[in-house]
Amino acid sequence: MDLLSFLPSFLAIFHFLLVVGIALRVIMQRPDTGVALAWLFIVAAFPYTGAGIYLLLGEKRISKRREQRISNQKDDYVKLLQHIESRRMTDVPWEKHPVEAKGMNRLGVNTIGFPTVTGNSGTLFSNTEEILDAIIEDIDNAKFGVLMQFYIWHRGGKADEVLEALIRAAKRGVTCLVLIDAMGARSWWNSSQPRKLRNAGVQVLRSLPVSIFHTLFSRTDLRNHRKIVIIDGDIAWTGSMNMVDPKFFKQDGNYGEWVDAMVRLEGYAIVPLGLTMIGDWVREKGESIREVISKTHLDEIQARGTTDIQVVPSGPGETYDGLLQMLLATINYAKKELILTTPYFVPDEALLLALRGAAARGVEVHLILPEVVDSFLTRYASRSYYDDLLEVGIHIHLYRVGLLHTKSITADSNITMFGTANLDMRSLWINYEVALFVYGEEFAKEIRDLQQTYIADSDLLDPKKWAKRSMGQRVLENTCRLTSPIL
After folding, report:
1. What is residue 470's three-state secondary structure?
2. CA distances from 348 to 344, 426, 441 (A)
3. DSSP of 1-62, one letter per residue?
């Protein structure tokens, strides 16, 4: 028989066996049913390429070394949490909060490990120029240690002024640790700025390095999406903003400047927030947690207010579904009103059902999304969910002033989520994220007021007009939705 004539049959048989093999692997991994079916579709529809994509991106593989370091850190976390309790940082007056808040605290402790701490105050910033100016001022006032962690650092504008402030701090003897994601900031890593920081004495590390070697042992697109700044154990920053000046960042798109918010914290919440960043640092550097805490004075934190905050980090190897569980608890708590902002909305089945259920039981649900996002697949996958939301009365507001990047939830103006996590499968299952769950009306009011400004700058999606979109657009949306597990 001519070998060339047999080749198509051989390739078809090989592809069939490959699909069967990947299917068995997917089944044994036991992912969410929708995720499993999406991967099986991708593997079957794209011969060989689909299997390759699955092997690279389909499983939350982390290296044995990282897995071991995460495991080792848990012992340190237990000792440090005992110290937190001995300092009475967790003496939260639960009687002033809804009964559900205490249950959420218990949920967070059991799934993540960090309890709610009292003794905090926070200032919300929603102007990016003011955020960068305030961070520069805090760095210039630092005496002992500056810890910074971001997914993206981008050259230009006030981000360069932050870099100069770090150099000044290092030159006056302040310990400066900077951890930046390897892939999110790949253009920055290829610039001269990391070397400039190192030459000044700033310690700079890649988070989750990427290479062919690393690909053999861990999933390449597991990214560290956290944004944290710690100054002297006195001040902490977190929220949605990367280390970028929006006037200089992604200006070639048609979605305008990125719109973000950050909170400047003082008080005991700096402890779990600092531990989150230090944990990431020592996984890359191999130092001990206690050594970093000592030289940055994170063991000298004092109470600075009465706000009660639970820090919830998440990511592969740290927690399975802790963040999702906390989000579901927040949504299920709402009885009157639920307002959510996110740039990327590609929910898993549980989150979608929770939102639909809230609206169906009479909660007024408002979802605020950017009118245009910077990802083609995410843009159309997100729109595929609009019908599911509109049919139960959820209000969808499309923000038109820029790319709304703030991640927030307020439930009945009482319980708040604020942080780095988007309402998409990547944030819920793949990225390393950190979120604040804040119990109490004061902070909730600030976030809700900010959300109302976003609504004022948005267009309410008309269900009747939306229903008239073309069949071609519907097909595109639903096709992109099938790729949700890898967005």
Report:
1. coil
2. 12, 10, 29
3. --HHHHHHHHHHHHHHHHHHHHHHHHHHH---HHHHHHHHHHHHHSTTHHHHHHHHHSS---
Residue 434: which residues within 8 A CB-CB, separation 6 or more? 226, 227, 228, 238, 273, 276, 311, 312, 313, 314, 419, 420, 421
Q: How confident is the model at residue 1 (pLDDT cuts 50, 70, 90)?
A: very low
Alpha-carbon gap, residue 195 to 201, rounded angstroms: 10
Q: Tell me which H or E stretch contains 205.
A: strand 203-207
Q: What share of the chain is helix, strand, coil (3-state, %, to 5)?
A: 50, 20, 30
* Integer-rounded Cα radius of gyration of the chain: 23
State residue 68's pLDDT score.
Answer: 62
> What's phi and psi for 467, nearest 5 deg?
-65, -15
Catalytic residues: 225, 227, 232, 405, 407, 412
Predicted structure pTM score: 0.88
Q: Using CB atoms within 10 Å of the CB of residue 468, give its burial: 0 to 12 exposed, 13 to 18 middle, 19+ buried.
A: exposed
How far is 466 from 383, CA to CA, in rounded Å?
10
Q: CA quadruple 152, 153, 154, 157: dihedral positive or negative?
A: positive
Quote the CA–CA distance of 132 and 130 in Å, as a whole number.
Answer: 6
Amino acid, res. 361: R
